[in-house]
Amino acid sequence: MGDSPGRGAPQRRHKAQPGRAGKYEWRPESPTSMGSLGQTEDLQDEDRNSAFTWEVQANNCAYNAQFKEKVFLCWQRKKYKTNVIRTAKYNFFSFLPLNLYEQFHRVSNLFFLLVIILQSIPNISTLPWFSLGTPMVCLLFIRATRDLVDDIGRHKSDRAINNRPCQILMGKSFKQKKWQDLCVGDVVCLHKDNIVPADMLLLASTEPSSLCYVETVNIDGETNLKFRQALMATHKELTTIKKMASFQGTVTCEAPNSRMHHFVGCLKWNDKKYSLDIGNLLLRGCRIRNTDTCYGLVIYADGYVFANPAGFDTKIMKNCGKIHLKRTKLDLLMNKLVVVIFISVVLVCLVLAFSFGFSVKEFKDYHYYVSGVHGSSVAAESFFIFWGFLILLSVTIPMSMFILSEFIYLGNSIFIDWDVQMYYQPQDVPAKARSTSLSDHLGQVEYIFSDKTGTLTQNILTFNKCCINGRVYGPDLEATTRPKENPYLWNKFADGKLLFHNAALLHLVQSNRDEAVREFWRLLAICHTVMVRDSHRECPDQLLYQAASPDEGALVTAARNFGYVFLSRTQDTITIVELGEERVYQVLAIMDFNSTRKRMSVLVRKPEGTICLYTKGADTVIFERLHKRGATEFATEEALAAFAQETLRTLCLAYREVAEDIYEDWQQRHQEASLLLQNRAQALQQVYNEMEQNLKLLGATAIEDRLQDGVPETIKCLKKSNIKIWVLTGDKQETAVNVGFACELLSENTLILEEKEISRILETYWGNSNNLLTKKSLSQVKLALVINGDFLDKLLVSLRKEPRALVQNVNMDEAWQEPSQSRRDFLYASRLSLLCRRFGLPLAAPPAQDSRAHRSSEMLQERAFVDLASKCQAVICCRVTPKQKALIVALVKKYHQVVTLAIGDGANDINMIKTADVGVGLAGRKGMQAVQNSDFVLGQFCFLQRLLLVHGRWSYVRICKFLRYFFYKTMASMMVQVWFACYNGFTGQPLYEGWFLALFNLLYSTLPVLYIGLFEQDVSAEQSLEKPELYVAGQKDELFNYWVFVQAIAHGVTTSLVNFFMTLWISRDTAGPASFSDHQSFAVVVALSCLLSITMEVILIIKYWTALCVATILLSLGFYAIMTTATQSFWLFRVSPKTFPFLYADLNVVSSPSILLVVLLSVSINTFPVLALRVIFPALKELRAKEEKVEEGPSEDIFTVEPLPHVHRESRARRSSYAFSHHEGYADLITQGTILRRGPGVSSDIASESLNPSDEEASSSPKESHW
């Protein structure tokens, strides 16, 4: 066996370099720095980490408290904070000022405040200040209450997190404390399944060599376990609680930052320095798995300094971002419209004030009573009249509209909460709207950014099918679920949870006659890095596996059930039970998996003495290494294609027998490569590649990564709604792409752009400053982008140049003669050439020009990427950090001004959820962090379809109709004040009765418009789901925009003109008890015409008629009749003639049939054109279209599009469905023996050195006294 580090090599010490003082101590390689050496240096040496500003000493609060940081001028505060989390926006002192500050960001509130101030000036106001002051206070109170309720929920979730228990070393024992009591420098004890409360340096654990297995699903979305390892120094020395209490090591490291996969520092202890990296760090949010107990030193904690979220220091919280104030597009549009209305009102008031001045100046001698202030100038009176008109016309920005909109938003949110069709019964999770002001935004979403793990998938991987020697074995048709009788009773090691069963295959295995079948299952039992857990405590009679990935766990479990049981392993052997016979194989070398190799191999010596290489990996790399291609190989390719169609995750299995002399020669080269100090990894890769040749194909496996229920159907429906779906995941690219095919985000005819192609296209776009993405030909191609986080960083920093003309650099003859690299270069060049021609780009990259110097390169690169990605039907970003997820969302919002939605279920999705316009959290297995930071909560991804297409669309339609109708009725009722001013000398005298003005928006017209905002449905829920294309109207802002606003204003002005001048025209030159030429009767006629006209308008608007709808209309008219009769009655006139001056004006109008005919005529003139435009003309047009279709007969529109010629990425046309979520580095630990126990029942070195209960420093608790 070779002796390279991490591959069975003996541990070596490197000699110190001449002339350099220092001691060197070998320590295990971390997962992120393979092949590095841990150094320990004398403290007298120059500090190489002087740039590091973060210094923490263990068990020394006084030392850590001395560090201060400057905040402002000479004000300083403690540099290291406590571990208190506060994600809420407000506290007791900041709520009132901060909430008022946020509310007065609305222009409408500033306008109302100005009007209230004007109303408090006696010389200007014609109305009491409380007429607008009281509604204003109500509006602010309603919104503040809503914000307070939302923030109280955040406070509750914060308290739940801060009060989680943990064990902190205090004195000479560990005591139970809360997370919020943690401080930097504390030593914490964590047990199995505990969540890490802060970023900590791992000091020791009960596992061999102080390994600690963690689940990082909350951080990067990966479900496979990762390992962290303590320093050998702390592992060997900190073996008792007494030694732990006396530990005074000092950690010097980088300041808190958001880099999730990077950490650099050193530990100073006992006059030595030990280098630290991310492999020694336990991040907040990780969960301890398969490790009984571990101990850590808190380095970064999450403090919170008075409304300053920047106080967070842990990496996960640094990635979470700040809480953003989210406002809908309609809300932002209303801000602009309020400004437009305000300017229009000011202009109208100026015109009326100037008109008043000219009128007074011309008729002052004849009409001396016009001036209410004797001795004042015309200019002064015009000034006061201007402000009087401004108060009178302030109702054109109706405050009641904003008050009612709050109730409408609240009601639509409640309907989401009450929808039983979005209730997820298995986990008892109902849909919930945590934000009550974003429901209409759900109807305008154009981009959905989704996490993968736990959002699209169930995190459950199962063995589904296999192909052995060209023959496919799937689950029996009659055994699609768990069989009635266990078919594996003959195998005492079988796992009863495995559902896969194939009687033919099982019989073939038990017969033990087929060598291919035997080697197939033997490979699965040998070629892996799975460990057997100590199960004597949990399940004494069962084997418990500890797998680095769920894929490996599923494969080893399948082999176990078919009689090839992985029993145990040591540093250089592996023991399996083959059909009841125990066999020990000597492990000669483990060639670990990584994302570049895409394969893993194990070289073993069989008990018979023969040497065999077992390899599993991607089909693209295995088929290139086969000895020959025959019928079996072609049959396996067909099986792989079928597996890919079923979106299963595939691996190919192959093996070869190795002659003894070949192995000896290879082992010598392997040892030489493993001893290299430079380019060791490249040398080892070359040696591995030499061995992994001339393989014999055994078959392939197919694992199902189960999607959540209804995911493909939901994505298909959302795509029909013109919604683009991007998947942002921290998982591997192969896994993400496979899930993309499974959920139908990608299809077989989708052209997936590779990173080189993306760089070239964007570079040419950058150089030409040409919007190449608007080419018509682009719509003919189904494009998809698949990129990773590293490429995204490089892309947005600087676009790398490709060769000027790659096709010209490839020799045609060499391309076809060389089967590997040059052929791939040619295929890539041909493909790139084809893409360039398709996009209309020059083949050669444009030369660098001086004109680029003055351009904003960063913005141009970002814009180019967003433009290209937005034209693709699908975008999958792999290996992205939480901060990168938020960056992608922010870029789309920045350059496209669209409504975005982010959905996820883990802490790694928080930043994305906060950044998007709408954040949806799934209550899943990763915890409630995403839910606590979301705007809406769902139990499953499939409910997103109903949330958007039904509730979102309904909310948008309701709000738009509500706003359009409210502006119409406001203009229809209030513009008559302007027309009346032309006939009363521009004095600002109101036309209507004061009570009509006060009750118009409160009782007379409120109920119907409130019904529209809460219950209106243009189509049913079923039709909304059946016709998802209806959703496009919200994306294009068709139902309410500037043009619709102008139409509503024009319609309202037209209605006011008809009501006023029709009544004025007929009432001229009339007198008598039955006439309405007096001011009061005239005002009642105009008011009645206005109310009936807007009632007919609401009748034409409403499409969802119910008994409640009819009741609201009748109640509104009833309220008007009752209140008008009461306010114009004799008995109220006797009580206060000044308050109720309209005596019997209503009776004068109602008792005259001619006056009622005037009202009917006005209403008819206002209604008939609208009826013709909205009902009659569309109906006739639809009828005519149907008749023409019948006359023409059936016809087929043939639309041919030139297809994009298919250029294979590799030599084969079949899509690879390879996916394997293995974590690199486990092979090193196995061959080093650092994670292997010496034998059954033998614990680790730490455990053997732990305290006995009799020691003087032993704690009263057994867990605290020894490990």
From TrEMBL:
Segments crossing the lipid bilayer: 127-145, 337-358, 378-404, 966-986, 992-1014, 1040-1062, 1082-1102, 1109-1133, 1153-1177
Annotated stretches, region: Disordered: 1-42, 1240-1267
Localization: Cytoplasmic vesicle, Secretory vesicle, Acrosome membrane; Endoplasmic reticulum membrane; Membrane
Entry binding sites for Mg(2+): D451, T453, D905, D909
Mode of membrane association: Multi-pass membrane protein
Enzyme Commission number, as recorded: 7.6.2.1
Protein name: Phospholipid-transporting ATPase
